[in-house]
Amino acid sequence: MTTRSGNERHQFARYMSSPSSSFTELLAEHHPDALPWSRASGSMASNETPHGTTIVALRFADGVIMAGDRQVTSGTRISYRYGEKVYTADNSSCIGVAGVAGLAFEMARLFQVELLHYEKIEGVQLSLKGKANKLAGMIRNNLEMAMQGLVAVPIYAGYDADSGVGQIFSYDAVGGMSEEHVGYHSIGSGSFFALGSLKKLYDASLGEQDAVTVALEALYDAAEDDTATMGPDLAREIYPVVHVVTAEGDRTLSDAETGAIARRIVERRQSEPNGPRATVGP
After folding, report:
1. How many domains does the chain have?
2. Cβ burial 223-256 (10 Å sphere, 16+ → b, else e)
3. Is 191 among the domain residues?
4. Domain extent at residue 249
5. What is the chain's pLDDT, residue by residue, as a tens digit (282 residues)?
6. Is residue 233 part of a domain?
7. Strand runs labelled E in the chain
8. Looking at the domain assignment, is residue 1 inside a domain?
């Protein structure tokens, strides 16, 4: 039977006796080198640093939907076509990230552990807004790197069991948090175009299928005008990553589900290249 040495037991006791239930603070105390924002380079980031791009989120009748394109770019070059920029945060929320790809993806994974660690230590989950505030603190910790050009900005969304609705939270590069009361939001280089599309197509009463369609239409519009955003790649069968969060929890749509909707959108665009138009009048 393997036994722990006295030093290993000592280290374990230090971790378990931490006065904070924050995993981020625990790392900062014992292993600060493991934190993504502890690796400041002292120089401005190159334009060739891989970046992730457009994420959209919107509320619908039963919860919230978040979708992200798959492309990662380095300057004008496509670095990767299979990037995943939307992650499950916990069983009732998800997080999408844009900006410097490596830093953004690591921040999302650290946030997953942060929420799990809190629940293990405290025995209860934070409220949805409490989780959103945790993420804001993590972004503020990245301020030094953001000042060097290494910016990672997330969007957070989930189902609030107390109110019975989906909620969306956006952030700026220094950790300022806003709840998006209009029912939708977008981040990343294609966000201006995606927001224009969402503004015309969004309806709070949308069902899940229609809400996913609106999200993919917005990403399609962003891809048409933003070179860093990727549209559906039917030849390679690469489609946006889509998360649906309801009272039942967080669910990632399969490629088959997302692909079926994406193919219908592309087919309709053959006759209507500019996409669906908003209804005018009563």
Report:
1. 1
2. bbebebbbbbeeeeebbbbbbbbbeeebbbbeee
3. yes
4. 49-269
5. 455 555 554 554 555 555 566 766 655 666 665 556 555 454 445 556 778 789 999 999 999 999 999 999 988 889 989 999 999 999 999 999 998 888 889 889 999 999 998 888 888 889 999 999 999 998 888 777 777 777 889 999 999 999 999 999 999 988 899 999 999 999 999 999 999 999 999 999 999 999 999 999 999 999 999 999 999 999 999 999 999 999 999 999 999 999 999 999 999 999 999 888 877 655
6. yes
7. 51-52, 55-60, 63-68, 72-74, 77-80, 86-90, 93-100, 152-160, 165-171, 177-179, 184-187, 241-246, 249-252
8. no
pTM of the shown model: 0.83
Tell me how crowded residue 35 is: count the other CB atoms within 10 A of its CB: 17
- CA nearest 155: which of 85, 258, 220? 85
Cα–Cα distance list, 47 to 19, 31, 50, 107, 185 (Å): 41, 30, 8, 20, 26
Indicate which CATH number applies to the domain containing 168.
Answer: 3.60.20.10
Q: Which of 3, 49, 53, 246 is catalytic?
A: 53
* Residue 53 among the catalytic residues: yes
Q: Which two tokens stand for residue 173?
A: 């590069």
CA atoms in the 13 A half-sphere facing the CB of 125? 15
* 234 part of a folded domain: yes
